[in-house]
Write a structure and sequence with these properties.
The complex is a heterodimer. By secondary structure, chain A is α/β, with parallel strands linked by helices. Chain A contains 22 helices and 23 strands. Chain B is an alpha/beta fold. Helix content of chain B is 29%, strand content 15%. Classes of the chains: A alpha/beta, B alpha/beta. Chain A: One of its GO terms (biological process) is SCF-dependent proteasomal ubiquitin-dependent protein catabolic process. Chain A: It is found in: Nucleus.
Chain lengths: 590, 195
C-alpha cells in the first residue's frame, strides 16, 4: 500500500516517507472520499490513516442508534458537522413494535451538544424526539442549519417553536411523517422577521392550522426557498397565492388539493403554476378533483418526481395528466392508476427510475384493475427503471420471469401481494420460479421484499445468487428451517433481515450465529423460535444484543420462563456498546 | 381460508393484551385460531380510533368498502405493510366515501300500519340503532345480545328482528354490525310476548 510512492521521488532532495506526511495532508486527501464505506476502508489501513480519517470525518451515519453509545461516536469523530441516526427497526412502521420501545434521541443530542459544538445538520429516523431535545438543539449549535425528522414522535409544535426561534441560520426544516402534537404554539411566527435563510420547509405531516399571513410573509422574504411542502390545512386558493410569492420553487407539496370547482380559482391556479418554471417535484393529498388537474399542465413537462400516493384521483384525468410528464424519473401512485394507466406510463416516461404503486383499498374486496400486467409493461419499456415497490393482488411466475429478463438493472425490488401465500393465479404453483429469476438476473439487487406463496427453494436461489443483497424482507413464506438456513448461509452482503410469520425455528439461527455479527440487524416475529435458543445465541455471541419482546400486558421476568417458551418477537443486532439500559418492561435482553 | 389451514394449532396462549371476544370482527370462530393478536396498543397510540365495544366504529371497518365482509386481513392490523400515515389517510377517505352512501331500510313496529325509514349508514352499531329506534317509536326496545343480560326491573315490551337477503326473519344482534349491514332488508319491532 503506497510502498512505491516514496521511492518514486525525483531529484536528489530527500523526500519524507509517505507515512510521515502530516495528518492534515491525509485529512485533505480523505475529504475527496465522500462515501462512508470508502472512508471506513481507508481508516482500516493503518493507525496514521485511522487517526487522520476519524478526525476529518464530517458526515456520520449511525444506522442503528444502539450499535454504539453516543459518547463513543462523538469522541471517535470529533469534527462531525452532519449526523444521521436511525432508531427503531423497520417493522415498527407497520405497528409490530409496541410503544415506548426506546430509540430516544435525547442521549444523542446531549452528546452532540458536548462534543460537536459546530454541528450543522441533524437527522433522526424512527426515534423519539422530545421538545427538550429540540430546545437543546436550538441552544447548543451556533451554526445549526438542517433539521430532518422522519417517522419520529414525542415532540410538539412547542418544540418546533424553539427551533424556529433559536436557529438563526436554519436552512432546512424537513418533517416527514412524524407524529407531532399540536400545542397551537405559533412555531411559524417564531421565525424572526429578519430571518431569510430558509431553503426547505416541509410541514406536511402537521395536523393543525398555521397562520397563513405569517407563512406568506416567510415565503416572500426567503428568496432561496426551493422546497415547500404544505399541510392539509392550507386551502387551494392560498396555495395559488403562495406560488405567486415563490415562483422559483423546485419542490412543492400541495397539501390537501381539494375544493369545489370554480372557474376563478382554476384560472388563479393555472396562472400561478405557469409562473413556476423551476418546479421539478410535486406531491400532495389530491382528493379526487380532476377538474383542477389541468391547471398543472404547464409544469408537467418539467416534472422529474410525482408523488400521488395520497391522491385518490383516478381514471382518464389522471392518465391525461401523467401522459404529459415525459421527464418523470420517480413516480409514486395509487393502484387507482390501474394496468392501462401503467401502460401509458410505460410509453410516456422513458426516463423512469423509480415506481411505487400503493393499495387504495387494502382491506376491501379488490375492485381495482391493477395486476401483474402493469408491472410487466413498465419493466419492458422503461430502460432506466431500477427501483420498484408494487402492491397488487395477483402475480404469475411468467410475469416475474419476463420482468427479470427485461430489467436486469433492478437495485430494489419489493413486491407485496396483498393476500398472504397467494400462488401463481394461473398455474396455482408457488412463486419460487419467478423470484428466483429476479435474483438470478438482477445482479446488482440491493433490496428485496418477497410475497405470495413461496417454499424453501426460493430462499436457496436467493442465498446463492443475491450476492449484493443488503436488505431482505420476508413474510408468510417458506416451509421449514431450511429456508432461513439458505439465507443466512448465503447472501454474502446481507445487512438487514426482517422476517414475520414464517415457520423458521432455532436450528438455522444457531448454526449461523457468526453470520449475525456481519449483519446490522435481524428481526423475527411470529416464527417458531424458543427462549432456549435465544439464550444460547446470546451466550455464544457476546457482541450481539438479543432482545425479546413479550406482550406488553404481561411483563414476565425471562429468568422464570423455561427454554421451551415460544418467543414472539426477536430483534438481534450487533453493538460495541453492550446491552442498552433503557428497555421498557416488555423488552428483555437475553 | 388459506391461512387458517396453515395454523397448526400451536398450543401457546394468545399473547395479546386484548381478549379476542371483545372485538366483533374476532368473535367468529375462525379467528380464534390465530396464534397471536396484533398489537392494538400501537394503533391506539397512532390515533386510529379503535373501540372495543360491540358498536365499534373502528377505522378498520371504516377502511372497508360497504357492503363487504370484514376480510381476514383486518385481523392482522400490521398487514399489508403500509405506513400508518397512509393507513389513516385511506381510512379517512373511505369514511368520507361511506358518508356519501346511504342504506335506507323500512322499519315497522308491530301493530302500526305505517312504517318509518332509517339510514343505517348513519349509525355506529347496534347500540346506536337501539337508541335511534327507541326515540323514533317512543318505546323501550331490546335486541338479542342485551336480552340475555337484562337489567332486573327493566322489561322491554319490544325486541328487534330483521328480514335478511334470504327472506328469513332473524333476531338482530347475533352477527357483527358490518355483516348485518350487508344482509338486512327490513327491520321489524316485534312484541316480546310473541316469542
Amino acid at each position: 500500500m503506497g510502498r512505491g510512492v516514496g521511492s518514486r521521488s525525483g531529484g536528489g532532495a530527500a523526500q519524507p516517507p509517505w507515512h510521515s506526511l502530516p495528518d492534515e495532508v491525509w485529512e485533505h486527501a480523505f475529504s475527496f472520499l465522500p462515501a462512508a464505506a470508502d472512508r471506513g476502508a481507508a481508516a482500516g489501513a493503518c493507525r496514521g490513516w485511522l487517526r487522520a480519517e476519524r478526525r476529518s470525518r464530517r458526515r456520520l451515519a449511525v444506522a442503528n442508534c444502539y450499535a454504539t453509545s453516543p459518547r463513543d461516536a462523538v469522541e471517535r469523530f470529533p469534527s462531525v458537522r452532519a449526523a444521521e441516526v436511525k432508531g427503531k427497526p423497520h417493522f415498527a412502521d407497520f405497528g409490530l413494535v409496541p410503544p415506548a420501545w426506546g430509540a430516544e434521541a435525547a442521549p444523542w443530542v446531549a452528546a452532540a451538544a458536548d462534543g460537536w459544538p459546530l454541528l450543522e445538520e441533524l437527522s433522526f429516523k424512527r426515534m423519539v424526539v422530545t421538545d427538550e431535545c429540540l430546545e437543546m438543539i436550538a441552544a447548543s449549535f451556533r451554526n445549526f442549519q438542517v433539521l430532518r425528522l422522519v417517522s419520529c414522535e414525542g415532540f410538539s409544535t412547542a418544540g418546533l417553536a424553539a427551533i424556529t426561534e433559536g436557529c438563526r441560520n436554519l436552512r432546512e426544516l424537513d418533517l416527514q411523517e412524524n407524529y407531532i402534537e399540536d400545542c397551537s404554539s405559533h412555531w411559524l411566527s417564531s421565525f424572526p422577521e429578519s430571518f431569510t435563510s430558509l431553503e426547505t420547509l416541509n410541514f406536511s405531516c402537521l395536523d393543525g392550522e398555521v397562520n397563513f399571513a405569517v407563512l406568506e410573509r416567510l415565503v416572500t422574504r426567503c428568496h432561496n426557498l426551493k422546497t415547500l411542502k404544505l399541510n392539509n390545512a392550507i386551502p387551494l386558493d392560498k396555495v395559488a397565492s403562495l406560488l405567486r410569492k415563490a415562483p422559483h420553487i423546485v419542490e412543492l407539496g400541495t397539501g390537501k388539493f381539494s375544493a369545489d370547482y370554480h372557474p376563478d380559482l382554476f384560472a388563479k391556479l393555472e396562472a400561478a403554476f405557469a409562473g413556476c418554471k423551476s418546479l421539478r417535484r410535486l406531491s400532495g393529498a389530491w382528493d379526487a378533483v380532476p377538474d383542477y388537474l389541468s391547471a398543472f399542465y404547464g409544469v408537467c413537462e418539467g416534472l422529474t418526481s410525482l408523488n400521488l400516493s395520497y391522491a385518490t384521483v383516478r381514471g382518464p384525468e389522471l392518465i391525461k395528466f401523467i401522459s404529459r410528464c415525459k421527464n418523470l424519473q420517480q413516480l409514486w401512485v395509487m393502484d387507482l392508476i390501474e394496468d392501462h394507466g401503467l401502460a401509458v406510463v410505460a410509453s410516456t416516461c422513458s426516463k423512469l427510475q423509480e415506481l411505487r404503486v400503493f393499495p387504495s383499498d387494502p382491506f376491501g374486496a379488490g375492485q381495482v384493475l391493477l395486476t401483474e400486467r402493469g408491472l410487466v409493461d413498465v419493466s419492458a419499456s422503461c430502460p432506466m427503471l431500477e427501483s420498484v415497490l408494487y402492491f397488487c393482488r395477483r402475480m404469475t411466475n411468467e410475469a416475474l420471469i419476463t420482468i427479470a429478463k427485461n430489467r436486469p438493472n433492478f437495485t430494489c425490488f419489493r413486491l407485496c401481494i396483498l393476500e398472504p401465500r397467494t400462488p401463481d393465479y394461473i398455474t396455482q404453483q408457488s412463486l419460487d420460479a419467478g423470484f428466483s429469476a429476479i435474483v438470478e438476473s438482477c445482479k446488482g439487487l440491493r433490496r428485496l421484499s418477497v410475497s405470495g406463496l413461496l417454499t424453501d427453494l426460493v430462499f436457496k436461489s436467493i442465498g446463492e445468487h443475491a450476492d449484493r443483497l443488503e436488505m431482505l424482507s420476508i413474510a408468510f413464506a417458506g416451509n421449514s428451517d431450511l429456508g432461513l438456513h439458505y439465507i443466512l448461509s448465503g447472501c454474502k452482503s446481507l445487512k438487514k433481515l426482517e422476517i414475520r410469520d414464517c415457520p423458521f425455528g432455532n436450528k438455522p439461527l444457531l448454526a449461523n450465529a457468526a453470520k449475525l455479527e456481519t449483519m446490522r440487524s435481524l428481526w423475527m416475529s411470529s416464527c417458531s423460535l424458543t427462549l432456549g435458543a435465544c439464550r444460547q445465541l446470546a451466550q455464544k455471541m457476546p457482541r450481539l444484543t438479543v432482545e425479546i419482546m413479550n406482550d406488553p400486558g404481561r411483563a414476565c421476568p425471562l429468568d422464570a420462563l423455561p427454554d421451551e417458551s415460544p418467543v414472539e418477537k426477536l430483534y438481534v443486532y450487533r453493538t460495541i456498546a453492550g446491552p442498552r439500559s433503557d428497555t421498557p418492561d416488555y423488552v428483555q435482553i437475553v | 381460508m388459506l391461512v387458517m389451514a396453515e395454523c397448526k394449532g400451536r398450543d401457546r396462549s394468545p399473547s395479546s393484551s386484548m381478549d379476542s371476544s371483545t372485538h366483533p370482527a374476532l368473535s367468529t370462530a375462525s379467528a380464534a385460531c390465530w396464534p397471536t393478536r396484533p398489537d392494538l396498543s400501537t394503533d391506539l397510540r397512532l390515533g386510529l380510533s379503535l373501540s372495543t365495544s360491540l358498536s365499534s366504529s373502528s377505522s378498520l371497518q371504516a377502511a372497508e368498502s360497504i357492503p363487504s365482509m370484514p376480510s381476514r386481513n383486518q385481523v392482522l392490523l400490521s398487514w399489508p405493510p403500509i405506513k400508518p400515515f397512509l393507513r389513516s389517510a385511506l381510512a379517512a377517505s373511505a369514511s368520507r366515501r361511506r358518508r356519501q352512501q346511504t342504506l335506507f331500510v323500512k322499519v315497522y313496529m308491530e301493530g302500526l300500519p305505517i312504517g318509518r325509514k332509517l339510514d343505517l349508514l348513519l349509525l355506529d352499531g347496534y347500540d346506536s340503532l337501539l337508541v335511534k329506534l327507541c326515540n323514533m317509536f317512543k318505546t323501550p326496545i331490546t335486541y338479542a345480545d342485551v336480552y340475555q343480560q337484562q337489567v332486573p326491573g327493566v322489561k322491554a315490551a319490544h325486541f328487534l328482528t330483521y328480514e335478511d337477503q334470504d327472506g328469513d326473519w332473524m333476531m338482530v344482534g347475533d352477527v357483527p354490525w358490518n355483516l348485518f349491514l350487508t344482509s338486512v332488508k327490513k327491520i321489524r319491532i316485534t312484541r316480546t310476548d310473541k316469542c
